[in-house]
Automatic annotation (TrEMBL):
<dbReference type="GO" id="GO:0008080">
    <property type="term" value="F:N-acetyltransferase activity"/>
</dbReference>
<dbReference type="InterPro" id="IPR000182">
    <property type="entry name" value="GNAT_dom"/>
</dbReference>
<dbReference type="InterPro" id="IPR016181">
    <property type="entry name" value="Acyl_CoA_acyltransferase"/>
</dbReference>
<dbReference type="Pfam" id="PF13508">
    <property type="entry name" value="Acetyltransf_7"/>
</dbReference>
<dbReference type="InterPro" id="IPR045039">
    <property type="entry name" value="NSI-like"/>
</dbReference>
<protein>
    <submittedName>
        <fullName>N-acetyltransferase</fullName>
    </submittedName>
</protein>
<keyword id="KW-0012">Acyltransferase</keyword>
<keyword id="KW-0808">Transferase</keyword>
<feature type="domain" description="N-acetyltransferase">
    <location>
        <begin position="1"/>
        <end position="140"/>
    </location>
</feature>
<dbReference type="GO" id="GO:0005737">
    <property type="term" value="C:cytoplasm"/>
</dbReference>
Length: 140
């Protein structure tokens, strides 16, 4: 059984989890990762019975009209056990009525995209195009 809590994990735990899922862009600069989490609206963790960090979700937004699921990670050894769903449901339960939950994930042509798209659809998310929306981004 996992326990969901709002907390900022220790640096070594963050690096272990982000590294385990292959998000090396985050692990290259631990200070930046810590600042990103500290500046988030919500950071919720999932810990197993031994207290080991097995999942994390973090959001950014205005708390009124939009909530962006910035990161959702579940340790590979703990995936497909409901942890990701529990973390997203925690965010959804904490969001104000009428808030738009938004996320960006890998494209369908990637291995991760093929796995994650059905997961997000099962939680009620729909691609922007199906909602008459388009997404744009600019890396600076």
């Amino acid at each position: 059984m996992v326990r969901i809590a709002e907390e900022l994990p220790a640096r070594d735990e963050l690096l272990d989890l982000y590294g385990a899922v292959g998000w090396s862009v985050y692990t290259r600069d631990p200070e930046r990762l810590e600042r990103a989490l500290a500046g988030s609206d919500l950071v919720a963790t999932a810990r197993d019975d031994d207290g080991r960090l097995v999942g994390l979700v973090r959001t950014v937004g205005d708390g009124v009209s939009i909530c962006y699921l910035q990161d959702l990670l579940v340790h590979p050894g703990s995936q497909r056990g409901g942890i990701g769903r529990a973390l997203v449901e925690h965010v959804r339960d904490r969001a104000a009525a009428g808030v738009l939950l938004v996320l960006t994930t890998d494209a369908g042509g990637t291995e991760d995209g093929h796995r994650s798209h059905p997961f997000y659809r099962a939680l009620g998310f729909a691609p922007h195009g199906e909602q008459g929306l388009a997404a744009f981004s600019l890396r600076v």
